[in-house]
């Protein structure tokens, strides 16, 4: 195995960050929220309408993802809009979609 690959997670902090990110993605509602946010900034009211979940539930999940550094928020008037914070997370979500959502092409 090349040295670079072998040392990829030799730093415990990096490994813990990866684990925490994957735990966040493992929750169905959080993954759905992230997929919706890939289309662009969205507020809680729009997420509530699309997902059929309560405002408080969605807000709790958004707070978890903000705490983990996955989301950013921008206030516009009385509304707060959430968006994906970095391109790497967006790329990872696209990889997940490619692995699990394009089954027809593999069959």
What can you see in these coordinates?
By secondary structure, the protein is α+β, with helices and mostly antiparallel strands. The longest helix is centred in the N-terminal third of the chain and has 14 residues, at 12-25. The protein has helices at residues 3-6, 12-25, 28-37, 44-51, 55-67, 87-100, 103-106, and strands at 42-43, 71-76, 79-84. The protein has a domain at 28-89: Arc Repressor Mutant, subunit A, CATH 1.10.10.
Topology:
Elements: H1 3-6, H2 12-25, H3 28-37, E1 42-43, H4 44-51, H5 55-67, E2 71-76, E3 79-84, H6 87-100, H7 103-106
Antiparallel strand pairs: 1-3, 2-3
Short account of what is shown:
The chain has 107 residues and is α+β, with helices and mostly antiparallel strands. It has helices at residues 3-6, 12-25, 28-37, 44-51, 55-67, 87-100, 103-106; strands at 42-43, 71-76, 79-84. It has a domain at 28-89: Winged helix-like DNA-binding domain superfamily/Winged helix DNA-binding domain (Arc Repressor Mutant, subunit A, Orthogonal Bundle), CATH 1.10.10.10.
CATH C-level category of the domain at 28-89: Mainly Alpha
Relative helix content: 55-70%
Put simply, the count of helices is 7
Q: Strands across the major sheet, in which order?
A: 1-3-2
Radius of gyration: 16 Å
Shape: globular
Strand tally? 3
Enumerate the spans where pLDDT stays under 50 for 5 or more consecutive residues. none
What series of H and E elements makes up the topology?
HHHEHHEEHH
């Amino acid at each position: 195995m090349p040295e670079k690959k072998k040392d990829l997670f030799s730093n415990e902090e990096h490994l813990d960050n990866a684990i925490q990110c994957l735990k966040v993605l493992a929750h169905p509602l959080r993954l759905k929220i992230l997929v919706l946010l890939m289309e662009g900034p969205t507020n809680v009211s729009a997420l509530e309408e699309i997902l059929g979940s309560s405002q408080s539930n969605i807000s709790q999940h958004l707070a978890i993802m903000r705490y983990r550094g996955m989301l950013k928020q921008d206030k516009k008037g009385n509304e707060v809009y959430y968006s994906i914070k970095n391109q790497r997370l967006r790329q990872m979500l696209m990889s997940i979609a490619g692995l699990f959502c394009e089954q027809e092409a593999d069959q």
